Amino acid sequence: MNWLTNFVRPTLQSLVRKRETPENLWEKCPGCEKMIFHRDLIANLHVCPHCEHHLRFAAKDRLRSMYDRGEFQLLTVPGVPTDPLKFRDTKRYSDRLKENRTKTGDDDSMLVAAGAMGGMNVVTAIQNFAFLGGSLGMAGGEGMITAAKAAIDRKAPLLAISASGGARMQEGILSLMQMPRTTLALSMVREAGLPYFVLLTDPTTGGVAASFAMLGDVAIAEPGAMIAFTGQRVIENTIKEKLPAGFQTAEYLVEHGMIDLVVHRRDLRDTLIRLFDLLMNRARKAAADGESVAIPQIGYAGANDAEGVKRAAE
Predict the structure, then answer these.
(1) Considering its fold, how many domains does the chain have in total?
(2) What is the DSSP string of 201-251?
(3) How far apart are CA 281 and CA 301, in angstroms?
(4) Are 183 and 244 part of one and the same domain?
(5) What was the pLDDT predicted at 296?
(6) Quick one: pLDDT at residue 31?
(7) Which long-range contacts (CB under 8 A, 24 or more apart) does 90-95 make?
(8) Within 10 A of 305 (CB to CB), how many other CB atoms are there?
(9) What pLDDT score does 287 carry?
């Protein structure tokens, strides 16, 4: 061995050796299956530049895209018992929680944030689908209650952003109890004369769709979002009929009066700010006149009222 093999050859190899390409530089669009460069995807708010398919958006990234200057405060949610049922399938529930907390950096699937949108105080309860499929458990129920109380304290509108596979099976009946708990939390917001908005993202299903996700005064969805209580195949097997094309998509639901608007992700912030301003001005005027204000539950009012909301948002 000499200096040629010990020094020169390794130096030359290091100069010509190709660096390995990181695996996360490209992502395939689930809609058109084209490859998207990760910087283009981030710049386009995780919307495919080829087919406009809305990919799933990380909870904190979504919050940064909506709050003024990307600044918001995460509010502390009271702790809940860990694994009260000592549940275990292929692994312990407590181990699954630890894994997801390490992976996401969050304590559970629901985050509560406060900040300004268009200069107005807004409180947001947002589900993180990356944490156990955004499933609703005891911590999620506490998160919604925390968000409702924060909205009342700040006299701010409440925005819920759903992304969930439904109730968390590992918590059994304790998870199902969060459906009425979140509904009661929203009743406190309405009694305070404050509006409640819902942004339905893909997917919004199960116990979440059957509770707070469909109770908004104004219900907005992203294009192509799946919104349902149970899967299409289960329904077809039960009723023995073929369901219409596009069933359970945001576009189908807005056409049939179940939600009010379908809004592209790039337009969501501006649309929400206009709606916040519209309903909060009405609430402030009623308070100044000494009247009690009842925010109409537009999401269930039918197509005519939905058209009114659409015009106001424009």
Answers:
(1) 2
(2) EEEE-HHHHTTGGG--SEEEE-TT-BB-SS-HHHHHHHHTSPPPTTTTBHH
(3) 21
(4) yes
(5) 43
(6) 93
(7) 93/170
(8) 17
(9) 62
Separation CA 129–CA 151 (nearest Å): 23
Q: Is there a contact between 79 and 27 (Cβ–Cβ < 8 Å)? A: no
- Domain assignment present for 8: no
6, 34, 55 - which closes a domain? 55
As a whole number of angstroms, the distance between CA 81 and CA 73 comes to 25
Is 2 domain-assigned? no
Q: How far apart are CA 66 and CA 59, in angstroms?
A: 11
Full residue range of the structural domain in which residue 107 is found: 57-313
Strand ranges for 47-195 from DSSP E: 73-74, 110-117, 120-127, 158-164
* Alpha-helical segments (H) within 259-302: 268-288
Specify the pLDDT at position 295: 45
CA–CA separation, 307 vs 311, rounded Å? 6
**DSSP code string of 120-152:** EEEEEEEE-TTTGGG-B-HHHHHHHHHHHHHHH
Rg of the chain taking only CA atoms, in angstroms: 23
Residues 208/127, Cβ–Cβ less than 8 Å: yes
| pLDDT mean by block of 10 residues, the chain; 314 residues | 56 54 79 94 95 96 97 97 94 96 96 97 98 97 98 97 96 97 96 96 97 97 96 92 93 96 97 94 65 44 46 54
Half-sphere exposure of 58 (CA within 13 A, CB side): 9
Please say whether the beta carbons of 196 and 215 come within 8 A: yes
Three-state DSSP at 199 gives strand
